[in-house]
C-alpha cells in the first residue's frame, strides 16, 4: 500500500506541476502579445507636447517592449525544453509567486540583481535534462514534497557553512590573531569551502532533477536514507561494496 500511495502522490504532484506550467505558458503568451502590440505602435502618445518628444517616448517604449518580447520568447523556449523555472545563478527553483509576477524571470528572489541580462535560454547549463515534458516523472523518483524537504535541509546547512566561512575569513584578516593560529584558520576555511561546494552541487542536482541517484548502480536512493544523509552518493548495497573495497 505504501508504494501505491507514493505513486498516487507523485502523480498528484506531477499534475499540479503541469497545471502550473500551463498557467505560466498562457501568461507568457499573453505578455508576449502585449509586448508585440507595443512594438507595432506607430502613433505618438497624445498630450505630451509638440516636437520630437512624443516620437522619442514611443521609440523608447517600443525598445523596452522588444527586449521584453525577446526575454519572453526565451522563457517559452525554456518551457519547451523542460528547463523553465530554475534560477540561472544558483540553480534552485524559482518561487511560483515570483513566476506569476514576472513569468520570464531567470533568477530567484535572492539572486535577482535587477541587471539587464542577455536574452536566450541557457540550455547548456542543464546538460542532463532531456528535452521532453516527462522529465519530472522519468528522472526523479522523489516527490516534490520530499525534494522540498531535502532542499530546505541542504540550504540550511549551506547557510551555516557560509556564515562560518565569513567568520573564519574575518578572523584571518584580524591583526590581533596570532600567526600560529591563522594557519589553523586557513585549514578550517579550506574544509568549510569544500563542504559548501558539496552542498551547492547537491542543490544544483535537485534543480536539474538528477538528485538522489546512486553513483554505483544508478538506482534511486530511498528517501529515508536521503533524509538522514542528504549528501549520500550511494544506495546501501553500493555503500557496503564501496566501503569493503
UniProtKB/TrEMBL annotation:
<dbReference type="GO" id="GO:0008270">
    <property type="term" value="F:zinc ion binding"/>
</dbReference>
<feature type="zinc finger region" description="dksA C4-type">
    <location>
        <begin position="87"/>
        <end position="111"/>
    </location>
</feature>
<keyword id="KW-0862">Zinc</keyword>
<feature type="domain" description="Zinc finger DksA/TraR C4-type">
    <location>
        <begin position="83"/>
        <end position="111"/>
    </location>
</feature>
<keyword id="KW-0863">Zinc-finger</keyword>
<dbReference type="InterPro" id="IPR000962">
    <property type="entry name" value="Znf_DskA_TraR"/>
</dbReference>
<dbReference type="InterPro" id="IPR020458">
    <property type="entry name" value="Znf_DskA_TraR_CS"/>
</dbReference>
<dbReference type="Pfam" id="PF01258">
    <property type="entry name" value="zf-dskA_traR"/>
</dbReference>
<keyword id="KW-0479">Metal-binding</keyword>
<feature type="domain" description="Zinc finger DksA/TraR C4-type">
    <location>
        <begin position="210"/>
        <end position="243"/>
    </location>
</feature>
<feature type="zinc finger region" description="dksA C4-type">
    <location>
        <begin position="214"/>
        <end position="238"/>
    </location>
</feature>
<protein>
    <submittedName>
        <fullName>RNA polymerase-binding transcription factor DksA</fullName>
    </submittedName>
</protein>
Amino acid at each position: 500500500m505504501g508504494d501505491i500511495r507514493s505513486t498516487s502522490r507523485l502523480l498528484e504532484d506531477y499534475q499540479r506541476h503541469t497545471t502550473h506550467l500551463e498557467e505560466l505558458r498562457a501568461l507568457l503568451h499573453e505578455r508576449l502579445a502585449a509586448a508585440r502590440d507595443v512594438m507595432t505602435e506607430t502613433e505618438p502618445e497624445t498630450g505630451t507636447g509638440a516636437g520630437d518628444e512624443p516620437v522619442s517616448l514611443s521609440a523608447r517604449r517600443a525598445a523596452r517592449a522588444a527586449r521584453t518580447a525577446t526575454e519572453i520568447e526565451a522563457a517559452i523556449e525554456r518551457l519547451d525544453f523542460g528547463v523553465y523555472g530554475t534560477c540561472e545563478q544558483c540553480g534552485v527553483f524559482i518561487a511560483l509567486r515570483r513566476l506569476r509576477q514576472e513569468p520570464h524571470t531567470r533568477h530567484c528572489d535572492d539572486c535577482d540583481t535587477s541587471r539587464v541580462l542577455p536574452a536566450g535560454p541557457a540550455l547548456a547549463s542543464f546538460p542532463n535534462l532531456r528535452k521532453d515534458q516527462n522529465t519530472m516523472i522519468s528522472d526523479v523518483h522523489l516527490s516534490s514534497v520530499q525534494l522540498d524537504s531535502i532542499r530546505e535541509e541542504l540550504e540550511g546547512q549551506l547557510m551555516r557553512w557560509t556564515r562560518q566561512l565569513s567568520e573564519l575569513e574575518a578572523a584571518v584578516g584580524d591583526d590581533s590573531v596570532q600567526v600560529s593560529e591563522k594557519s589553523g584558520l586557513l585549514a578550517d576555511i579550506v574544509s568549510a569551502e569544500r563542504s559548501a561546494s558539496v552542498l551547492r552541487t547537491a542543490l544544483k542536482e535537485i534543480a536539474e532533477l538528477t538528485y538522489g541517484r546512486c553513483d554505483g548502480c544508478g538506482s534511486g536512493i530511498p528517501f529515508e536514507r536521503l533524509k538522514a544523509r542528504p549528501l549520500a552518493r550511494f544506495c546501501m548495497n553500493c555503500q557496503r561494496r564501496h566501503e569493503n573495497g
